[in-house]
Design brief:
Blueprint (H helix, E strand, L loop, with lengths): L3 H15 L5 H6 L5 E8 L3 E2 L3 H11 L2 E5 L6 E2 L4 E8 H31 L6 E3 L9 H10 L13 E3 L1 H7 L2 H11 L6 E5 L2 H9 L4 E5 L3 H11 L4 E5 L7 H5 L5 E3 L2 H4 L6 E8 L1
Parallel strand pairs: 6-11, 7-8, 8-9, 9-10, 10-11
Antiparallel strand pairs: 1-5, 1-12, 2-4, 3-5
Length: 279
């Protein structure tokens, strides 16, 4: 479950974006005392994620109760009834788009993640996300990855040391970068370094990097790198990973596979609020 102190602000900001002053359409045709019910349906197959965020939109608006028939992580089919909402007609209409935007986006990420995770079922490799997230949506998107069966890499720049290509260039090489990081980082922090060649792998091993990320290598080079590293470091692989390539990557013996597409390329899951009825 996410921290409501964090997500409430993001939800309120989203509501303010959509309703800077008032919903002039709803207020023109719906009385302030009107009550209604409306149903949340799936329009396509996928994994549901973010129901508590969806609910929180209406909790913040007030005077709306929700009855859920599914939970996060459930597989839904077209026309599946997911929830029924009852309460203020105005608040149902005002919150509809914001609530659906969160739920559709989060469910789309969970659905895509499940497709990738399924490819790794018969391997020892673990699926990771990245920081390639929508600005201000990271807490929602990384949660969705977990619901889909993936695992979170570092949440932000304060969460772990990861020396990427530009850090290495700035430091003057792999050795310099790792040694500088070790000198400054707390002893409880692991040092991860991104490498692109076998020579860089060798350098990373010489300075005892904790995690070596093999970036954009072909399969044969990855196999050679895995042999070189053995159990001396945790091995991550990244770079243009797709549903077509992830299983072969896993079979090279790497420990983790990071996939930016989980959050930057997921299609929304089509969901809808329908059958509004006055009560």
């Amino acid at each position: 479950m996410m921290n409501y102190l964090i997500i409430d602000k993001l939800i309120i900001d989203a509501l303010k974006e959509d309703v800077p002053s008032e919903d002039i359409t709803t207020n023109a045709i719906v009385s302030i005392n009107s009550k209604s019910t409306v149903d949340l349906f799936a329009k396509e197959e996928g994994i549901i994620a973010g129901l508590h965020v969806f609910e929180r939109v209406f909790t913040i608006l007030g005077d709306v109760k929700l009855e859920f028939f599914k939970v996060d992580g459930d597989l839904v089919q077209p026309n599946t009834l997911i929830a029924r909402l009852t309460g203020s007609t105005r608040h149902l209409l005002i919150g509809e788009r914001t609530a659906l935007n969160f739920l559709q986006r989060m469910s789309g990420i969970a659905t895509l993640t499940k497709s990738f995770a399924d490819k790794l079922k018969n391997t020892d490799a673990m699926l990771l996300d990245t920081r390639k997230t929508t600005p201000n949506m990271r807490i929602f998107e990384k949660y969705s990855v977990k619901i889909g069966g993936g695992h979170n890499h570092r949440f932000n720049l304060s969460d772990g040391v990861l020396l990427k290509d530009n850090h290495i260039s700035a430091a003057g090489g792999v050795k310099n970068a790792v040694l500088a990081a070790k000198a400054q980082a707390s002893f409880v922090r692991k040092i991860e370094v991104e490498v692109e060649t076998l020579d860089m792998v060798k350098e990373a091993l010489e300075v005892e990097a904790d995690i070596i990320m093999l970036d954009n290598m072909d399969l044969e080079t990855i196999r050679q790198a895995v042999t070189m590293i053995g159990k001396k470091a945790i091995i991550e692989v990244s770079g243009n990973v797709s549903l077509d390539t992830i299983e072969a990557l896993a079979k090279t013996g790497v420990d983790y596979i990071s996939v930016g597409a989980l959050t930057h390329s997921a299609k929304i899951l089509d969901l809808s609020l329908k059958n509004l009825k006055n009560i």
